[in-house]
Each structure stands twice: as structure tokens, then as C-alpha cells.
Amino acid sequence: MLTACAKTPDWDYDKSANFSNVKSFAWLPNASLTKDTTHYQISPLMEQRVQKAVNATLTTQGLQQVAIEQADVLINYHASVDSKIEIDTFTTGYNARWDNWGFGIQNQTHTQNYEVGTLVIDVIDRGTNQLIWRGAKEGRLKKNQTPEQRTLAIEKTVATILANFPPK
């Protein structure tokens, strides 16, 4: 969904939370990317890719996926797609007319519509049911990607978002 993300991820967390005790995770029972959207890039296939990437990244970081009753933290996620407009104006030429005392600059403006996707990953303390960490990243969406390209893009995005979890 997110590809070629130029922006760095955005992180926020509860400074009073004890992240040293976080050893296991489970998914929030109603976690869903597709719940409130009908955008074609946020599909059940994309949801599977994101869940697999989150599971792999957290496991690599030393956390164990367990049943919800035994988890230290619960994982939730959201995705959104927004339309944006890029506007570029550049000078294409200069004119000077001396008989009528004129001077002019020619500008050309180019606009392009594009879509930006945002992936948000939340970590919730299972004991208190409070949000203790949130990471998000947005990036320009590419169309006509192969499933392999989409999977790779999601894996990179999720790894980048979770690079600061748990916070040091």
C-alpha cells in the first residue's frame, strides 16, 4: 500500500509505561484495516500482508505472539488514503518589448493529483486497555504493482514504523 515513503515515521508513546516488561503480543480482536474503508488498495489481501509483517517484525525484536489472555500488549492498526494535489510553477521565458515599454515573465503551472496512504500501528497495554505506543508512516501510493512489490513495500514500511518499539 505504501511505497517510496519519503517521510520518516511518526512515533508517540506514554513515558510512564514500562516497556521493559513487554515480552508478548496478540492482536486486538476487532483489529481491521478494511473496517471503515472501501479504497481498492486497502483490501483483505493488504490486511494479511500488514499482519504478517507486524508479526514478523515484532518476533524479530524478541516478542512472542501468544493468545490474547496471556499477551502483555495488544496490537491494533488503521489505514487511510487521502487525495493530494501537487502544484509546480516554473518560469518558461522572459519577454521584453521596447516600443510599448513592456516586460513580461511567462510562467507555467502543472498540477497532479495523487494518493497518500497512512498506516498507523497502535500498541495497547492489555492490563489497563490504554494506548501506550503509536507509530505511523505516510507515503505516496503507487498503482499497478505486483503482489511481490506490494508485500515488499509493506514489509519495509512496517519495519520502519516498528523500529522505535519498544522505545529506548
Automatic annotation (TrEMBL):
<protein>
    <recommendedName>
        <fullName>DUF4136 domain-containing protein</fullName>
    </recommendedName>
</protein>
<feature type="domain" description="DUF4136">
    <location>
        <begin position="11"/>
        <end position="167"/>
    </location>
</feature>
<dbReference type="Pfam" id="PF13590">
    <property type="entry name" value="DUF4136"/>
</dbReference>
<dbReference type="InterPro" id="IPR025411">
    <property type="entry name" value="DUF4136"/>
</dbReference>
